Amino acid sequence: MNGKRVILLTGPPRSGKSTVVAKTAELLKAMGFKVGGVLTLEMAGERGRIGFKLLDLWRGREGVLALAGLKGGPRIGRYWVNLGDLRDIGAGAIDIAIRECDLIIIDEIGPMELLSEEFRGSIARAFECGKPVLATVHYRMGDRLVREAKNRGDSILIEVSPLDRGELPAKLCEAISGLLGGGLR
């Protein structure tokens, strides 16, 4: 990864992007690094996925990103996006990570998340703050913010596949810990 500070993971849905990010975060936390930002997790019901929740990695706060049948806010497919939690939990988690953490996690930069101007602003600030950023990017995202992130001189785009997702967390951990100055702090 040759010293790239902004690491963007992409891949088809269910390729393991979020799992790779979560495992990488765990490994870096175990090494003593301060890891913050936001993870997006699936919410399951009796008949499968019913939505997505947000997890603030630094403070442990949770919120709802989108929910089938939520009624209110913008709609993408069968999900209604909760702009309030996206602002308070999602963007808030990124902003706190910029101030207080060694590594900033952004999972995910996708159509739902980019509906929030506050979330977009937090992403832009993370890319410019000088700290390492590990983010997942929706597979076919053509948004200007995503194009600019992919074209940064300090970024690298990695496609996650079922074949390499098991070994990626260790490789990412090594690259990021190198950027941060090594092992236990």
Q: How would you summarize what this structure contains?
A:
The chain has 185 residues and is α/β, with parallel strands linked by helices.
Word description of this protein:
The chain is of the alpha/beta class. Helices cover 35% and strands 29% of the residues. It has 5 helices and 9 strands, in the order E-H-E-E-E-E-E-H-E-H-E-H-E-H. The protein has helices at 17-30, 83-100, 117-128, 144-150, 168-180; strands spanning 6-10, 35-45, 48-56, 62-68, 75-76, 79-81, 103-109, 133-137, 155-159. It has a 9-stranded mixed β-sheet, with helices on both faces.
Descriptive tags:
185 residues, alpha/beta, Rossmann fold, nine-stranded mixed β-sheet
Q: What's the end-to-end separation, in Å?
A: 22 Å
* Rg (C-alpha, Å): 15 Å
Strand order of the largest sheet: 5-6-4-3-2-7-8-1-9
Tally the helices: what do you get? 5
H/E element order? EHEEEEEHEHEHEH
Molecular shape: globular
Helix content: 25-40%
Q: Tell how many strands the DSSP assignment holds.
A: 9
Uncertain parts: none
Count of discrete domains? 1
Structural class: alpha/beta
Q: Main beta sheet, described?
A: 9 strands, mixed
Strand content bin: 25-35%
Shape-level CATH architecture:
3-Layer(aba) Sandwich
